[in-house]
Design brief:
About 70% of the residues lie in helices and about 0% in strands. The chain is an all-alpha fold and about 325 residues long. α3 crosses α8, α3 packs across α10 and α9 runs antiparallel to α10. The protein is globular and about 60 Å long.
């Protein structure tokens, strides 16, 4: 993969991990639904516009992992170990900060094992999901290497179709045909791979339009469904919805066709990309640390509050990940 290919992937990964931080900072604000509040609308706009984060991570994985020539053992050893070791470190860290450690050692260990079944911290769901996806990647990779484009598009067509199943109204159109074999996050990997192989003209205005359309749908539909229930409903925030898929495709293609010319910006993006997994794992810890140390800056303006504290959280998470990587054997667990 040449430098230009690496650069756009770095950009996509860096943008996605920054979006995760924006998303999680605005979650408490969005959950306090008030359709007449400018603060809620600002949080809804930011959060709804950041929903591409997980899909873009997965689409990048599709680009890097599908259509390649590798054997099962080397893939599992390289990919799974790279994900698991940092995950275990941060699971222990979160557990130590959240749990009652005055019990006996056996009780603490049993408590840790129980917590690990579903995740010690809420954002670690992503790791469980990606591990499940990785176990299936060697099979999908074999298919993408041999399947003609029309069969890949066939898979994606059905995958896109079933994203409508959970939407109000559309779910009444489906029978008992079992579509689960085409469902789930694995579709994003195939989508990322398919988009890089398709002959799509470089139309950056169209890509931005797709991004904008998907975001507007997410924001507006989230308001209407929440207003109808009198409380926040995140149905249209879900990653496997047509609106989020639309915005994710738009951003993915726009970044893919954009080159960063400024050397300092490109360097910064490369650094964030390099440590993105560690930033993801540690950013909830950083938010807690910011609160305890008085580093959280409160502004009445919601946008200013979110942007400022997201930057602080990003820099703190980056610093933590970097420092871990510099201790002996730290590169294996830093992320």
């Amino acid at each position: 993969m040449n430098h230009q290919d690496t650069q756009w992937i770095n950009t996509a990964r860096a943008v996605a991990v920054v979006a995760v931080i924006f998303l999680h900072i605005t979650v408490p604000l969005v959950n306090q639904f008030d359709g007449a509040s400018a603060s809620w609308w600002a949080a809804n706009i930011i959060n709804g516009s950041a929903r591409f984060c997980v899909p873009v991570f997965l689409m990048i994985s599709g680009v890097l992992l599908l259509g390649k020539d590798y054997d099962l053992t080397s893939f599992l050893k390289k990919r799974v170990v790279r994900v698991v070791l940092p995950f275990l470190l941060w699971s222990v860290i979160y557990f130590l900060f959240k749990s009652d450690l005055t019990q006996d050692l056996k009780s603490i260990l049993l408590q840790f094992i129980k917590a690990m079944k579903s995740g010690v911290e809420f954002h670690l769901w992503y790791v469980y999901m990606i591990l499940g996806v990785y176990l299936f990647v060697p099979i999908i990779n074999r298919l993408t290497r041999t399947a003609p484009k029309k069969e890949i598009y066939y898979f994606l067509s059905i995958w896109l179709l079933i994203t409508f199943i959970g939407l109000p109204g559309f779910n009444k159109l489906f029978t008992r045909i079992d579509f689960r074999y085409f469902s789930g996050f694995i579709g994003y990997l195939v989508l990322g791979y398919g988009l890089t192989k398709a002959n799509i003209s470089e139309n950056k205005r169209l890509f931005l339009l797709l991004l904008l359309a998907g975001n507007i749908l997410t924001i507006v539909l989230s308001y209407f469904i929440s207003a109808s229930q009198g409380k926040f409903d995140g149905m249209f925030y879900h990653y496997l919805t047509p609106n989020v898929i639309l915005s994710s495709v738009g951003l993915f293609l726009w970044i893919k066709n954009t080159t960063i010319h400024h050397p300092l910006v490109a360097k910064g993006i490369a650094v964030i990309s390099k440590y993105s997994y560690g930033i993801y794992l540690s950013h909830i810890f950083s938010l807690g640390l910011m609160s305890q140390l008085g580093l959280t800056i409160n502004f009445e303006n919601t946008i200013l509050y979110v942007v400022t504290n997201s930057i602080i959280c990003l820099l703190l998470s980056l610093l933590i990940t970097f420092l871990i990587s510099k201790i002996p054997y730290g590169k294996y667990v830093s992320g």
